[in-house]
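Q: Got a minute? One more chain.
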Amino acid sequence: MYRTRNRHVSFVSFVGLRVREQELLALGISLPGLGNRRAAVAELPALGLLTLAALMPPEWTCSYHEVDKWEEALIDQIAEEQPCLVAVSALTASIKEAYSFCNALRARGLPSVIGGLHATACASEATTHADAAVVGDGEPVWSRLLDDASTGGVHGIYQGDRPFDLNDSRPPRFDLAAALPRSRFTIQTQRGCPFACEFCAASRMLGAFREKPARLLRNELAALKDVVTRPVVELADDNTFAGLRNQRELLAALADANVRYFTESDWRIGEKTELLRDLAASGCVQLLVGVESLVHAYRGFGDKQADLGRLMAALYAIQDQGIAVCGCFVLGADGETAASVMSLVQFLVDCRLADVQVTLQTPFPGSPLRKRLAKAGRILADRDWDYYTLFDVTFVPDSMSVPELESSYRELAGVVYSEAENRRRMSIRRRVWEKAHNVRERRSVPLELP
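A: Always. Here it is, folded:
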């Protein structure tokens, strides 16, 4: 029988960067600088939950909780709130912890719903632990979820009949996250990506690629600065400058907000000289750019495909404007051998990138890569979701054994993330950011729109 509860939602985010391999931790592998990056990732709030909180009717209340691993005290705290719904967010590597939490909620009679990319790809699995799962965007089904929760309970899979229109976006409830000690926040300017790289699930699972109007981004930045004076912003985009919108309007909004921010883009922006100058002046301090594999051309790259020389020239052009580039590399793609790993090590030691991120190819649920490897029987069945950390081997390589790939990755980490290499890249970052000072002097003059 349904028990009457408060019109209250308890939002719970499972945060943090997970690494199972203790030897890698001892080697100091970083994303970049694992200690710093783990702290930074852990500090980022769950933007999806804050976005849904902004859509709560005025008569509803909510609370926001962040955990790495749950304890009984959190269940007790939520039980005292008497919510009619507990909304949970988790990535693949933390999904088992989230499932355990939902099981504990169910034992206490507290209804739960889980969302995100993993729940979207594995909705039937998710509903064996949570009472309900959201497939795709949460906004189109949020009102229905609240109605069900207040009148009898949520159950099963909730999926909208169309992707959410970002023109209808509201500023997230940044105030909920600001109540916890932090300076870093995420803001989203788009959903998905116009490309369909084989290893990426995010580009298609939430629907077609969409971009948020610059006027709404201004509203969100203003809302964020109402609660945090000097936030550090990470744009929660897959490829910020890949679309067809007026990028100068976007950069003007960021410049006017006077924030320092970090985002992701593909290498082509390095060949757009005028846009690149505006990017530096807008407050961008670092770009994460996927170089990916040096031995395998992934499907779905489209216009991102280029020879390595041209790509690296574009990345150095970005750094010449005072924006540090973190080059992302994937180890273990088809064709990878012990010799190619050592070639990558030498390349990374010789290159002038301000930072590098080297992770293992990971066949995340919902990605074309996983479907291809599963069809070929190459998914390791004895390694569950806890291994989907980006640092653990979860598939059978085509030209190496699993132990050989693991050993090669550890050898790479020992060199690329050594104290000497970390110092060298830090020196590069300092030189890059010294260039930024002169570029950002222009910020006293607003970016002019055409």
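A: The chain is about 40% helix and 15% strand.
Q: Perfect, thanks.
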